[in-house]
């Protein structure tokens, strides 16, 4: 199925960038990306967005696992990956791939590697998975409205 390929592509892209970030950004502080207002910076996030619940990484890991598994099962049971739901399925595949990449980090390292500072949220640092989860949610909602 193409949808598994999309989720896997999101996962692998972010995985590769995270490995690069761990190797090349450690101890370097914020590195501006041209005049975009964006920056590269290495952050290890043990919590949810904005480091919420960072003092309870095992609970975060368990919650993240349960949500991702239930989300995937629900998408399959509701038939979102069948023909005719291409836009919705694309968005959901992005969410699943991004969620899986961040969950892999939690299980493997105990934290999620973030590396991208955006000018619109200077205190938050993201990764490609986070951006794919957000974009996937928007795409899936638009797909459902059609």
Structural features, described:
With 146 residues, the protein is α+β, with helices and mostly antiparallel strands. Helices cover 59% and strands 15% of the residues. It is built from 4 helices and 4 strands. It has helices at residues 2-24, 57-77, 86-109, 128-145; strands spanning 31-32, 39-45, 112-118, 121-126. Helix 1 runs parallel beside helix 3 and helix 3 (86-109) runs antiparallel to helix 4. It is globular.
Key features?
single chain; 146 residues; alpha+beta; four-stranded antiparallel β-sheet; 59% helix; globular
Query: What's the helical proportion of residues?
Result: 55-70%
Number of helices: 4
| Overall average pLDDT | 90
Q: Unreliable runs, pLDDT <50, ≥5 residues? A: none
Total beta strand runs? 4
Q: From N to C, what is the helix and strand string? A: HEEHHEEH
Backbone CA Rg: 16 Å
Task: Please sum up the structure shown.
The chain has 146 residues and is α+β, with helices and mostly antiparallel strands. It has helices spanning 2-24, 57-77, 86-109, 128-145; strands at 31-32, 39-45, 112-118, 121-126.
SSE arrangement:
Layout lengths: L1 H23 L6 E2 L6 E7 L11 H21 L8 H24 L2 E7 L2 E6 L1 H18 L1
Antiparallel strand pairs: 1-2, 2-3, 3-4
Helix pairs in contact: 1-3, 2-3, 3-4
């Amino acid at each position: 199925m193409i949808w598994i390929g999309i989720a896997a592509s999101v996962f692998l892209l972010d995985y590769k960038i995270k490995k690069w970030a761990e190797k090349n950004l450690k101890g370097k502080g914020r590195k501006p990306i041209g005049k975009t207002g964006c920056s590269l910076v290495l952050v290890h996030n043990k919590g949810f967005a904005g480091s919420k619940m960072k003092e309870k990484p095992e609970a975060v890991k368990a919650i993240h696992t349960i949500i991702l598994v239930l989300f995937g099962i629900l998408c399959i049971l509701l038939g979102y990956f069948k023909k005719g739901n291409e836009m919705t399925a694309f968005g959901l595949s992005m969410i699943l791939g991004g969620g899986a990449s961040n969950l892999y980090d939690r299980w493997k390292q105990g934290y999620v590697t973030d590396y991208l500072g955006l000018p619109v949220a200077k205190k938050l640092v993201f990764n490609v998975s986070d951006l794919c989860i957000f974009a996937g949610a928007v795409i899936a909602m638009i797909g459902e409205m059609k």
